[in-house]
Design goal:
homodimer, 6-stranded parallel beta sheet, elongated
């Protein structure tokens, strides 16, 4: 596949014109991946197993594609790669070109739930896939490059979160060939004693397969042993006598890099060295010696003995291939496994309008009920403890699924708390891509740890959507709380709302960002997200009690609109305003409401319209995002020409880029998180980031003065007053080390004004 | 510190008013941290050691601040925390309030080079700090929460990159207290056999200290043993007989969480349980029982026996404190260690204008010379192999510092290649914060893996700058290459320019983003970055040969300006244009140049000005970033009113947010990376992301038609032509699986036009 564009069955000697103009691909890892694939086939057939194959080194795609073609899975989903001469010609000649399948595993690869582009996540994705699939075994190859990554290094602990009674098993295969591109690898340089020690410490039983002369025997017997161990552990747990700290099996496979490829070239070793990493004979088209070496290499596999005249493989090979329903490339979990969750009515968890209530507390109860109604198809993964995010009500009918604590006696459980965002994300990906539903609550500032991992997932999802054969999957659902705006004593390091920006850069059809202003809006938002498919949903909210502005009905219609006028705190319900004040986010919205109250008292002549945006994408310039308001609707909400001041939870830059292209942007001002504030009080955080009620009120007066003559006259006086408020309040906070006692009282509004 | 606002020496019984109104802090981890601090003091004094103390659990700040006050380091840098009654009162009463030091370790903490907010990086930072400091030992505490993170899990391998002949040593102390906030921890539930296996596998000798009744004896003897082992390994290496795979020492310390605190409250265990994580007596102000418990707890330390009347500690305690130059809080490496590197003349590495040359190749030679001139103070850390990024010339006089390969005989070396962005970043941070200079080249798409880690570093740097006592440190220097624009066969997963956006959101005085258009501009940019201090420098460039537009002199003045007109490809040197075409980035700039050539042929009546932006911040709205052009200069460059089309390397959203606020934005159009393109040809990547020459030319005609009557007449015809080019070229690429042969020929310009 790397070399040929014709003569793919080697019916004649290879000529220069049989070779592609541009040789692209990674040979080094392929022999091992094919070896494993073949053995898995044999094992599945022999023992009637349900397996998936997750491959860490994603650039080993040729190995996968070849195996998939051979078993007919490629032909099933792509008729042009049928199991005959033409199909084989098409596969080989177009590989890694603009006309064919890419040289990386991706969503176009049948059977794949993992891309293996950004290395480090194969194991955690595999563990996520086997959760709540008691009969599934995922064989997962980890290359020795990937093994160096942090996410992989901690993923080995994932066995400690697998309850063998309810979940399946991962069979990790650490595939060592000793080299990355040119440097040796850490694991390749570890001797067997070091490796056995390390993985025994992680909790595994280790078998090392390294005798290349007897590799089939060694690998097969190790696989049989491993499956036996897995079944032993599962049987014990399922018969009510679980083994404490079961020692799950793993296999370490040492094979030479580029094994069975050219031994040497121009006096340099190729097989077993880094020279075989990509294209071992880079000048095969022009150089006769290299082309001769290619001829010898490819002929050594004796294609004439393996293929029939029609281009199909011989029956002996076919006899090792599992039946359709068991083939690695046709597993239904992978492409048609999604079942919509059974969701409770979110309204029954709503709280009274006018109360102060924690949005996290409200959804905790809702999530509890979601678990009750979906015993084996919804999970929650969190790097923090639910306790810390005020979500612990979710644990009312379920437990934390941690198996290594002899005192906890964890029996299953919908919740995994592990202090690794990478593990949580990997688990959620594997779980979601095999048809189930996951949630990922996190401290806001640390969700960015999986920024690129989320982007990788979104790329996989994009290509999945572009295939004809992959069905829907659940959206992945992030809940950000413990935000910068109420960071209490956590300080500067715990302030980073940048994950919003990560989602904004995704393809519009998949990206969803919500900042519900209160508990009821958060409930309906979460409900909406959990039943949605194929999105990346990000919900941002507070864990602290905050005012509930809207009844369930109002919450629903507000969230459906994405943004609306908060009439109760607007002047005369917001008609004919001089200025529009917009809050996006919980605390910053409260500051807008408080600013409106302040203005009503100090500057009643200023006509204020207060708007809340809960669906961030409504503000984006018309024509890009499906939720973006048309200019007409935008103008209805924000007026055509009045100044608009945004008080925004995230970085102002995000809002700037969304609004870009809307007409008359010179009337817009934006304040947002500005990287200010160490350990201080909640209200001081508002002050130092210039999103306090005083800042909002000041912006309102400055904007309103352009349209309201009476405000203009008093403008200078009023803004000085607000400046003084800012200075005095900061002084007060520092002197008293606390906010004023009435800071979070909900202001009352006289709606007749 | 968590509780008291008065009566800090317990001269009388604690009253309600002695207690702070808001109790904030983390008690659980503190006793262990203080224990270690005291023992390190004793050890330093006894053996005259050079040590630093890096603390993973950053919220253990009270332990550090107390110890620093006690040794006088706090008073040295903050006179208000003098070593007497007043100083102690100030420290305790203002702790974790808006008036005092925060409850998290940060740059305000003397002796600190690590914040410990986002967990996972303490170890790698420690290893970075000891590199090229042969006499330094960094004692690094890793909590059992942090130990669960991926970055920590792979950091244990860092010993494999430490050459004991030239570098110092890290003494890791895994501090297990068994709990996070409420859940057990992985490492807390591992038994001693599992722990010893695991860390033996990583390559350590392990000692476990867990007998709390003899903790001083156990910990001291283990520390003495560890320092002895370190010295043994170092002595062997420094006498020319290095031990292969030396087994570095580490200590596992098991102590009860919240040890010595209240044993129980209201019938619940506190000491040794998660209840001691934060504030063990949360209602001490209001609840008499809790206040009584507090009284007993604090009295149990017998302050009356430890403090003199003046509020200083007694001489017996003082006798264990090292001399000033050895104190953990006064180490010069931490706050005045920076020495500017000795840099070669970058001009001598320049290439000829008009050639095609790889920017990475050019800087590889320059970096080689930087290493030659700075044997022990400049290092390069990379998750990729230099080979792969065409930087391998940097290895001409130095090697890869990997110690675990018996065949490589690595003796030192300025380069560390390890497939973990987290390790690279941690190493660079530790190395930089102790006064040296680091570079971090990376595939563009995977640098985002350390997005939040970089933000954490920037936060540390911001607060360092705000102290009066910390000196300059080198900037940290990222080199992004292997970008999406030339991703060859790596496919969709290898495309992610989002790290630019991460830097854009930093505080303006620290953020620097450069996209030099050719090899010579890259050279002068790198030179500039390496001599700069306190910035986060991001440089983005291509590893492929690309046209060299500018001579060394031109490159220098272009980079000094940040952006300028490329006269050679502009109509009549760019005067009186109908449209301004701007390239930011290497390949997208070449497309702008090619578009200008195309337009000159097909639409000579359109007057085109071509601009290159190399310093991204010049476009930002006036008044924010120090590099932002004033509106007048902006208009001089981009004209006052003509349409501007940006062809941008990153996400368009970034440029939108930068430009927001500039007048007349309705004349601006922006194309950038749009998340399109799997494995395909380089030019197809331009086409599918709509940044090809045809897209630029089409945008130019559409813009220019507004100002040029003749262009307007032909506008429709021309844009259809370009549309056809786009369609036809894509067809050609897919059919031929390659770009047209002349795609990358530099177009010639007749400057008289």
């Amino acid at each position: 596949m790397i070399f040929l564009q014709d003569n793919v069955l080697l019916k004649r000697d290879i000529k220069a014109e049989d070779i592609k103009p541009r040789l692209l691909g990674h040979w080094g890892t392929c022999p091992g991946l094919i070896l494993v694939y073949s053995h898995l086939n044999y094992l599945i057939k022999q023992q009637n197993l349900d397996m998936l194959y997750v491959v860490g080194p994603g650039h080993g795609a040729p190995a996968l594609l070849a195996s998939l073609w051979l078993e007919g899975s490629l032909g099933k989903f792509y008729p042009e790669y049928s199991k005959d001469k033409d199909g084989l010609h098409n596969l080989i000649s177009t590989f890694s070109t603009s006309a064919g399948l890419p040289s990386h595993i991706n969503a176009e690869t049948p059977g794949a739930i993992h891309e293996g582009g950004e290395l480090g996540y194969a194991l955690s994705v595999s563990f996520g896939a086997v959760m709540d699939r008691p009969n599934l075994i995922v064989a997962c190859v980890v290359g020795d490059g990937e093994a160096e990554t942090g996410p992989t290094a901690t993923s080995w602990h994932a066995i400690k979160y697998i309850d063998p009674a309810e979940s399946g098993a991962v069979l990790p295969i650490l595939h060592l060939n000793g080299f990355k591109i040119s440097e040796r690898t850490i694991f390749g340089c570890m001797d067997n004693k070091e490796l056995v020690c390390l993985f025994t410490g992680y909790g595994y039983q280790v078998r090392i397969v390294e005798d290349v002369d007897n590799i089939d025997c060694g690998l097969h017997s190790s696989f049989v042993w491993a499956v036996g161990e897995i079944h032993k552990i599962q049987k014990a747990a399922r018969s009510g006598k679980p083994i404490f700290k079961p020692r799950w099996p793993m296999v370490i496979l040492r094979t030479p890099k580029g094994w069975t490829g050219p031994k040497e070239l121009h006096g340099q070793f190729i097989e077993g060295s880094f020279h075989s990493h990509q294209v071992p004979l880079p000048n095969a088209k022009e150089d006769d010696e290299e082309r001769q070496a290619l001829q010898e290499w490819l002929s050594s596999y004796k294609p004439e003995e393996l293929f029939t005249d029609a281009g199909d493989v011989i029956d002996e090979i076919k006899s090792t291939i599992p039946s359709d329903d068991k083939k690695l490339g046709m597993r239904p979990e992978v492409y048609k496994g999604y079942v919509a969750p059974d969701l409770p009515d979110w309204r029954q968890f709503c709280v009274d309008k006018g109360d102060q209530f924690s949005a996290m507390k409200a959804i905790g109860k809702y999530i509890d009920q979601v678990f009750v109604q979906n015993h084996h198809s919804v999970r929650l993964f969190s790097p923090d403890e639910l306790e810390s995010n005020k979500l612990s009500d979710a644990l009312q009918h379920t437990g934390r699924n941690f198996q290594w604590d002899e005192f906890s006696n964890a029996k299953g459980g919908r919740v995994i708390e592990v202090l690794s965002e990478h593990l949580c994300q990997g688990f959620m990906q594997g779980y979601t891509l095999t048809g189930r539903v996951g949630m990922f609550p996190s401290y806001e500032s640390f969700l960015g740890i999986v920024h690129t991992m989320m982007v990788q997932y979104a790329k996989f999802a994009k290509l999945a959507k572009e295939t004809t054969w992959r069905g829907d999957v659940s959206s992945i659902n992030y809940i950000e709380t413990s935000t910068w705006a109420r960071q209490e004593h956590n300080g500067f390091s715990h302030q980073n709302p940048s994950f919003i920006g990560a989602v904004l850069n995704l393809k519009p059809y998949a990206a969803r960002v919500y900042l519900p202003p209160d508990a009821n809006t958060f409930l309906t938002t979460l409900h909406h997200c959990l039943k949605s498919t194929n999105y990346i949903n990000l919900m941002v909210g507070s864990k602290q009690p905050t005012p509930v502005y809207l009844s369930p009905e109002e919450a629903e219609s507000h969230c459906r609109a994405g943004a609306s006028i908060f009439k109760f705190c607007s002047t005369e319900n917001g008609i004919r305003p001089d200025v529009v004040l917009v809050g996006i986010g919980v605390e910053v919205m409260f500051e807008v409401v408080a600013a409106a109250a302040l203005l009503r008292k100090r500057c009643p002549e200023l006509r204020v319209r207060v708007v809340n945006v809960t669906d961030l994408f409504v503000v984006e310039n018309e024509g890009t995002h499906p939720h973006a308001l048309k200019d007409e609707a935008f103008n209805n909400l924000f007026t055509e020409d009045r100044p608009i001041h945004f008080n925004y939870h995230g970085y102002a830059s995000e809002l700037k880029s969304l609004l870009f292209g809307r007409p008359r942007l010179d009337r817009v001002s934006i304040n947002g998180y500005a990287e200010e504030g160490s350990t201080t009080t909640p209200f001081d955080m508002m002050l130092v980031n210039e999103v306090s009620r005083y800042h909002v009120a000041k912006a309102a007066v400055m904007g309103g003065a352009k349209w309201n003559e009476r405000v203009k006259i008093r403008g200078q006086e009023l803004t000085s007053e607000f400046d003084k408020d800012i200075t005095e309040t900061r002084k007060y906070i520092i002197a008293n080390r606390k906010d004023r006692d009435d800071t979070y009282d909900m202001p009352s509004f006289d709606s007749s004004m």
